[in-house]
Specification:
It is elongated and about 120 Å long. The two termini are 81 Å apart. The protein folds into 2 domains: 2-90; 109-341, 2-Layer Sandwich (BirA Bifunctional Protein, domain 2). By secondary structure, it is of the alpha+beta class. It contains 11 helices and 10 strands. Strand 7 (245-252) and strand 8 form a beta hairpin. Pfam families: Phe_tRNA-synt_N, tRNA-synt_2d. Its cofactor is Mg(2+). Its EC number is 6.1.1.20. InterPro entries: aa-tRNA-synth_II, aa-tRNA-synth_II/BPL/LPL, Phe-tRNA-synth_IIc_asu, Phe-tRNA_ligase_II_N, Phe_tRNA_ligase_alpha1_bac, Phenylalanyl-tRNA_Synthase, tRNA-bd_arm.
Length: 344
């Protein structure tokens, strides 16, 4: 049996030296060391040996197993290292090659405008509020001093869903909801950006869906001068410190008195040109002092509280700030247009 073990050891080691394939080495491991391998078959005959011979043969068998296992592991490691070296040589990376450009997205221009305006008013103590786009007739009209059959309703060109439900025509309902929430008991400042809907023919300056940002400030002793100062700060922040504003009388059912605000033309600086149609001024937004009836319907005592409100079209602000001539450019998702306004 001793001679058989030595023969197995010699035969296995010779084969291991000659093999250059890891798969074949695994087959050799099974052939000699597996459950049905040569070494196992020899060891099954140890039961026929005497008590004195068994330890001797057992020790020899262990040495044969260890020698074959060590030779196999060393040869497999050597072949794996050679394969890795070959792969590295074949797959060399030229680190001097230029990288592939990565297209980086950015916020939509209208989103950037909204965020810029929000940051300005948050810094002035305003909170940002949102409300439903499908609104009730009460919040969209009646709570804003626009009762049934009021002629000013015709100005809105409303999308009605039912007699009582509609797509909001402005974000003013959020103001009404906020006043009712506070139940006439506390002053507040808020702005409400969002989408609004009106039945209109789409062209370069009109859209059936657009965005508004409206603001409301209610407190004791709020004056028109507070509104003017707020709007002046807004204009200078959005369009430059050299821009001037003017307020003109106007009419809105929910404010009294009402005004429209113009900013000085950035092209001619008030001298008059084709951009401002020779006036030197460009209309930008509307506002005014909150109508006492609106305050009263929301639970505020108009003898104690007063307030101002203003509203602007987000697209109009963006068009004036960046010189965009067609409102439809904001919604066609033309990458050539949008990427002009990506900020690094």
């Amino acid at each position: 049996m001793k001679e058989q073990l030595e023969a197995i050891r010699s035969e296995a080691l010779d084969k291991i030296v000659q093999v250059e394939d890891i798969k074949v080495l695994q087959e050799i491991r099974v052939t000699y060391l597996g459950k049905k391998g040569s070494l196992t078959s020899v060891l099954k005959g140890m039961g026929k040996l005497s008590k004195e011979e068994r330890p001797v043969i057992g020790e020899i068998a262990n040495k044969v197993r260890d020698a074959i296992t060590t030779a196999l592991n060393e040869k497999i490691q050597k072949l794996e290292e050679a394969a890795l070296e070959k792969q590295l040589n074949q797959e060399t990376i030229d680190v001097t090659l230029p990288g592939r450009p990565v297209n980086v997205g950015g916020a939509h221009l209208l989103t950037s405008i909204v965020e810029e305006i929000e940051d300005l008013f948050i810094g002035m103590g305003y909170e940002v509020r949102e409300g439903p786009e499908v609104e009730t007739d009460y919040y969209n009209f009646e709570a804003l001093n626009l009762p049934q059959n009021h002629p000013a309703r015709d100005m809105q060109d409303t999308f009605y869903i039912t007699n009582e439900l509609l797509l909001r025509t402005h974000t003013s309902p959020v103001q009404a909801r906020t006043m009712l929430e506070y139940k006439g008991e506390k002053p507040f400042k808020m702005i409400c950006p969002g989408k609004v809907y009106r039945r209109d023919t789409d062209d370069a300056t009109h859209s059936h869906q657009f965005r508004q940002i409206e603001g409301l400030y209610v407190d004791e002793n709020v004056r028109m001068s507070d509104l003017k100062g707020t709007l002046d700060k807004f204009a200078k922040k959005m369009f430059g410190e050299d821009r001037n504003i003017r307020l003109r009388p106007s009419f809105f059912p929910f404010t009294e008195p009402s005004v429209e605000m113009d900013i000085s033309c950035k092209v001619c600086h008030g001298e008059g040109c084709n951009v401002c149609k020779g006036t030197g001024w460009i209309e930008i937004l509307g506002g005014g002092m909150v109508h006492p009836k609106v305050l009263e319907m929301a639970g505020y005592d108009p003898k104690v509280y007063s307030g101002f409100a203003f509203g602007m079209g987000t697209e109009r602000i963006a068009m004036l700030k960046y010189g965009v001539s067609d409102i439809r450019a904001f919604y066609t998702n033309d990458v050539r247009f949008l990427k002009q306004f990506h900020q690094a």
